Amino acid sequence: MNLTKFADELPIPAILSPLQKNRNYTYYEVKMTEFKQSLHSELNDTTVWGYENGYPGPTIEVEQGEKVFIKWINDLPDKHLLPVDYTVHGAHRDVPEVRTVVHVHGACVEWESDGYPEAWFTKGYLQVGRYFRKPVYQYDNGNRPSTLWYHDHTLGITRLNIYAGLAGFYFIRNQQERLLNLPCEKYDIPLMLQDKTFNPDGSLYYPRQPDKPVSEMETSIVPEFIGETILVNGKVWPYLKVEPRKYRFRLLNAANTRFFRITLDSDQPLYQIATDGGLMEHPIGVKDILLAPAERAECIFDFSNLYGKNIIMKNGAPAPYPGGEPVNENTSIIMQFRVMLPLTSIDTSVIPAYLQPYPKLKEQSASKIRFLTLNDMMDSFGREYMLLNNKSWDAPITETPTLGSTEIWYLINLTDDSHPIHLHLIDFQLLDRRNFDVEKFNQEKIIHYTGAVQPPELQEQGWKDTVSANPKQVTRIIMKFHSYTGLYVWHCHILEHEDYEMMRPYIVIR
């Protein structure tokens, strides 16, 4: 489908207003609905799902430490917008076809409010999953100021619910960050990057069969989904008019499978100031930023001396990453900046030399080391699927960290793909990556390193909740389980993998 690039202006999600706010707490209600929305002016309006009649949903902005209650309300139709695969665990015919549960990605939160994949609910809460505890979630927002996002997390259909449009931003702010004098208000803009493919009538396309079709199946899970067009904030290849000054952009990869390697065709540096878990210690100037699904990076782009210029934000990551198809004339383009607005006032915002302290967790403080494999398997229909530590979703829980303890996890990737591994509840630090002999490991269960230790990339030197575990490497992360006990999950954030067994529960115990 040949759609004109830069035909539509970038939409910026509205900030959600609370229903109640007082000294003690803030209360929101957020409804999930089906509606039509224009994703490109040359397409018919597309039927999508969203929060509060918007895709992406409205941005929720809170203060650090603010006590927030959110009632998530499922007001969706009974029939799914996209093909459900009933062979997938958690999506068999014994559960309703349309069900939802919301996870605030990156939030440090009690387990009952974390959006556990089996805590789903239907319209009017008429049917609920076995771990559903309450309709109103509590968020204490103890995180550092950061760019989080909220999205669906239902077992077996997360990939479909997010692709249908169930995603939005969630910002935590504080006074300390405001004093840094970063670009703010209308110069602080979230950018949600996704990819989609459309049917000729403008409806969303999602495959009903894998590349090698399974004849006896009505619908079938695919090992990954790669879309043909790139969307930002729900628009295909949009443009944004900017002033010749500094802007803060909050970049989020909310795609199902696609990685993005982001550059500007003006060859100017991107000044990264934050990772998933908030501000870094110092800003870094880089030419490109690689974002795996669910990763965030906050950057300052400086358009000061570029009045009259058009700048294209480009993508250079093959899909699937790292060994897939290179980008083409469509998938290499993300959006355009038009430096054409007059300066409304002198730009006094800064890129500070120092942002905030980044205390490194010490390896010797770890009381437990876990060795966890990423495995590639085949099912009885000849379809590929992935496992964590060779275990399926409902195998007995094996990861049981103690509250207050520090652990190091060795993520041993035996597959050909990079997997963005996400842990709920906590932020971690990336220690290093190292190549190893996969064949020797498969035969003898011994890690035989074949290369030097690779420290984190500059852009990963901060608090993370999602990390790329690259093929034929051991990726080491360190974290402290400091705030809540209870039942959480860790998983690959390639949604097609997560939905088909590449997710495991873990439990924080006293």
UniProtKB/TrEMBL annotation:
**SUPFAM superfamilies given in the database record:** Cupredoxins
Q: Which InterPro entries match?
A: Cu-oxidase-like_N (IPR011707), Cu-oxidase_C (IPR011706), Cu-oxidase_fam (IPR045087), Cupredoxin (IPR008972)
GO MF terms listed in the record are: copper ion binding; oxidoreductase activity
Q: Please report the stretch or stretches of sequence annotated as the Plastocyanin-like domain.
A: 45-176, 384-508
UniProt similarity note: Belongs to the multicopper oxidase family.
Q: What name goes with this protein?
A: Multicopper oxidase
State the taxonomy lineage.
Bacteria, Bacillati, Bacillota, Bacilli, Bacillales
